[in-house]
Amino acid sequence: MKTFAALALGWLAVTLIAATVPAGGTAVLMYHRIDGSVPADPVGRDLTVVPAAFEGELRWLHDHRVRTLTAAELTASLARGEPPRHAVVLTFDDGYEDAATVAFPLLRRYGARATFFVSSGFVGTPRHLSWRQMRAMMAGGMEIACHGTRHLDLSTLDRAGQLREIGHCVAAFRRYLPGWRPATYAYPAGKYDATTLSILESFGFRAAFTERPGLATSLTRRFELPRRRVRHDDALAQFETLATP
Ligand SMILES: [Zn+2]
Known about the structure:
With 245 residues, the chain is an alpha/beta fold. It is built from 9 helices and 10 strands. The chain has one domain: Alpha-Beta Barrel (TIM Barrel), CATH 3.20.20. 42% of the residues lie in helices and 14% in strands. Strand 8, helix 8 and strand 9 form a beta-alpha-beta unit. The longest helix has 19 residues. The radius of gyration is 19 Å and the shape is globular. The structure holds zinc ion. Zinc ion (ZN) binds next to loops.
C-alpha cells in the first residue's frame, strides 16, 4: 500500500510539473517557392510566397531578434541537450531556381540563414538550381541538404529503391559540392518508413524532417522532426504565430 501511495504521489508530481513547464521547442518553417509570378493552380499557388511577403517575414524576425539557424545547427544543439532559445529554422524544399535568385539575396540582406532541401536529379534542369548556384549559397552560409534524387515517396519503395533514391543524392552532393557532408534530410511528401531511418543512419545523417506540424524539442525523435508550413495566404500575423513556440 505504501508503494502504491508513493507511486501515486510520484505520478501527481510529474503531472503537475508537466502542466507548469511551458512546452517550448523550436519552429522549423517550410517554404517551397519565393516568387512574384504566382501559379494559377491552387497547389502551386499555396506553395508560392511572394517576395514582398517573405521580406516582411524576414524583417519581423530581424526586428524581434529571432535568430535563424540552419537545420544542421538546430540538430546539433538538440543533440547537445541545449535547445536554442529565441530561434527559428527556415527551410525551402525542392530546389527551385528562385531559391538562389530571390530567397538567397533577401536572406543575406537580413543577415538570415536557411536550409535548402534539394532533389539532386532536378539540379540544372529548367527553373531549378544549378550546382554553381548551390555552391555560392553554401559559401554564403546556407545549408544545402538532401531531398532525394527524383523526389520519390520513400514509403512506396523497397530497400534497394530507397538506397538508390537516398544514395544518389548523397553521391551527387559529395561530387559537386566540395566540403558537403550528410547532416539533415527532408522526406519528399513527408513520407518514410522504418527502412528509411536505418538507411539514413548508415549514410551518417543526423536528423530528418517530416511535414507533420509541431515544434522540435530535445525529446523529438531526430529522424522525425516536425515542420510548420508557410502558405501563400498567410498574413504577417499568421507567420508570427508559426514562428513562435
Ligand atoms: Zn518536396
